[in-house]
């Protein structure tokens, strides 16, 4: 289903149908692409996996704000706002940023119930193009490289798109707790 390779900028995946989705590390040199992505999101509300919670208040989203945002989320990777070691990625297709993906290297009690190992989002104009599925598959691969044998991925119970993405990536539903569906994906 997926072929994977390590690229110069990070992990990348090819789905055989067309479309290249890659995970790149946040970088201030991508400020223009980041600001365009954030304008498409319309703010932080749907930017899951972005890391904006590492800030006391949601940061500004203009092109000139990118460097401070990148500095803040990378500084939080040790254990920052997620309170566990974690890694942030931007989902890219070529030179365009299409979303966010966040890998938590371990789970605390809150993440076990609500957040899981991987959070992701794709900007509204680029949804339904396979980016979320390819990015989640790459995130699962990154978790395997970190030595995680099974990852927990959650989504809102009413989010049919995310539910389908997780299931396409091998997610097996464990249960629904409140409004969260909880899936486990084996990384091997």
From TrEMBL:
SUPFAM superfamilies, from UniProt? Acyl-CoA N-acyltransferases (Nat) (SSF55729)
Know the name of this protein?
A: GNAT family N-acetyltransferase
Q: Which residues form the signal peptide?
A: none
Q: Which organism is it from?
A: Nocardioides panacisoli
According to its UniProt record, what is one Pfam family this protein matches?
Acetyltransf_1
Task: List, alphabetically, the PANTHER family matched.
Answer: ACETYLTRANSFERASE (PTHR39173)
Which residue intervals define the domain N-acetyltransferase in the entry? 22-188
């Amino acid at each position: 289903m997926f072929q994977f390779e390590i690229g110069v900028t990070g992990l990348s995946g090819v789905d055989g149908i067309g479309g290249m989705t890659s995970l790149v590390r946040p970088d201030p040199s991508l400020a223009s692409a980041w600001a365009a992505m954030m304008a498409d999101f319309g703010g932080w509300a749907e930017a899951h996996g972005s890391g904006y919670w590492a800030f006391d208040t949601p940061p500004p989203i203009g092109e000139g704000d990118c460097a401070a945002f990148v500095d803040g989320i990378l500084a939080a990777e040790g254990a920052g706002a997620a309170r566990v070691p974690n890694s942030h990625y931007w989902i890219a297709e070529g030179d365009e940023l299409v979303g966010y993906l966040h890998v938590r290297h371990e789970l605390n009690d809150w993440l076990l119930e609500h957040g899981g190992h991987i959070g992701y989002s794709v900007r509204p104009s680029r949804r339904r193009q396979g980016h979320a599925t390819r990015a989640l598959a790459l995130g699962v691969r990154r978790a395997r490289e970190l030595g995680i044998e099974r990852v927990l991925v959650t989504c809102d119970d009413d989010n049919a798109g995310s539910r389908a993405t997780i299931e396409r990536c091998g997610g097996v539903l464990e249960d629904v707790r409140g409004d969260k569906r909880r899936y486990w994906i084996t990384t091997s």
